[in-house]
Design brief:
13 helices, mainly alpha, two-stranded antiparallel sheet, two-stranded parallel ribbon, about 350 residues, about 70% helix
Length: about 350
């Protein structure tokens, strides 16, 4: 195979792999929530905290939208419950609702993913090939981010924060409060990004460009061998997802910018231009490990474009339901990960 074609195929495979891991993350959270409700049915019969509404639109608009959605889905009981709540709200009586409880399953699931992230990083110490270290770093970062999301779910339920409404056990419950906490985590994210910007040992191309462009470097860029890429990749994977998550949440929040605001259009344009530039850059890389690490940034830029398309109702998300597309997505992710690991092991052993 010609070197140019090999580089293109290598880049495509790396991007597909990262795409599948992110899609699998959506699927993992959705299925963990369903499993939690099934295994914790007894706990869910007990109401959680009194909820406070923190949605991006007024609660009356949310109730109207949920009635329309329930009617379209043919769920007469949900339509009736939302209708009663809306009538009570319009009559000035208001209505109260609670968040789901924090179940033992959710706690153990959070602890398990945190432990998995730690164990993977420990195991990476015994791996020498940088591509395998990168794969382990992605796996650890994936588990670390799932831990963060589950932690925010527990926090939002304990604090009674609601961003969406949902029918649970025949009553209206406030859910998705974790996105409120995640959106307001921009203050912590800003601190982390400033640290990375001025920390000259960080070799991220974006920060290197900003340091050179604004004369923030006092000496040459950091160089030298990296013995273990896994911890760096794990942090990069999780923090990059965090960054794009926060930007998209701020962009889609009607009280901040809005789905059709200038900020969302500008971010969309930046992502498109960046995607073209990054795709040109990634096919020039030769090392499988470097390609895989670069694919994280490329994928998140492309994923942001997809998320904006979904909000503009140009496409629909296929990973949130346990149907054939989601099963295919998860299966392909596992296949690609196994294929890349075996390929690198064989290359390492000279087979």
């Amino acid at each position: 195979m010609k070197p140019g074609i090999r580089k293109i195929l290598q880049s495509v495979l790396a991007i597909l792999f990262v795409v599948m891991t992110i899609g699998s993350g959506y699927l993992f959270m959705a299925q963990a929530d369903r499993l939690d409700r099934r295994l914790s049915a007894e706990e869910y019969r007990t109401p959680g905290q009194i909820a406070r509404w923190h949605g991006s639109r007024p609660i009356r608009e949310e109730l109207d939208w949920m009635i329309t959605k329930s009617k379209a889905a043919g769920d007469a009981e949900a339509e009736r419950l939302y209708g009663v709540a809306l009538k009570s709200f319009v009559d000035g009586k208001g209505f109260s609702f609670t968040t789901p409880p924090v179940s033992p399953f959710l706690i153990w699931c959070t602890l398990s993913t945190a432990l998995a992230a730690l164990v993977i990083l420990i195991l990476s110490r015994f791996v020498r090939h940088d591509a395998l270290q990168t794969l382990l770093g992605i796996a650890s970062g994936f588990m670390a981010w799932i831990t963060v999301e589950h932690g925010l779910v527990m926090a939002s339920r304990s604090l009674g924060i609601a961003r969406r409404l949902e029918i649970i056990n025949g009553t209206i419950a406030g859910v998705r409060g974790e996105f409120v906490l995640l959106e307001y985590s921009w203050v912590f994210l800003l601190l982390v990004l400033l640290y990375l910007l001025f920390q000259e040992s960080v070799r991220c191309p974006l920060f290197l460009f900003l340091r050179r462009r604004f004369s923030l470097m006092r000496g040459p860029a950091a160089a030298g061998r990296i013995d273990n890429y896994a911890p760096r990749v794990a942090f990069f994977y999780a923090s990059s997802i965090w960054t794009f998550y926060v930007i998209l949440l701020l962009a889609f929040d009607e009280s901040v910018f809005g789905i059709h605001s200038w900020f969302t259009y500008a971010f969309f344009a930046v992502c498109l231009v960046s995607a073209v530039y990054l795709l040109v850059r990634i096919v020039r890389l030769g090392s499988p490990g470097a390609v895989l690490r670069y694919a994280i940034g490329v994928t998140l830029v492309l994923w942001s474009v997809l998320e904006i398309f979904i909000k503009w109702r140009m496409v629909s998300g296929l990973w949130v339901n346990w149907g054939p597309p989601a099963i295919l997505l998860f299966s392909v992710a596992l296949f690609l990960s196994a294929f890349m690991i075996v390929r690198q092991i064989r290359k390492r052993s000279g087979a």
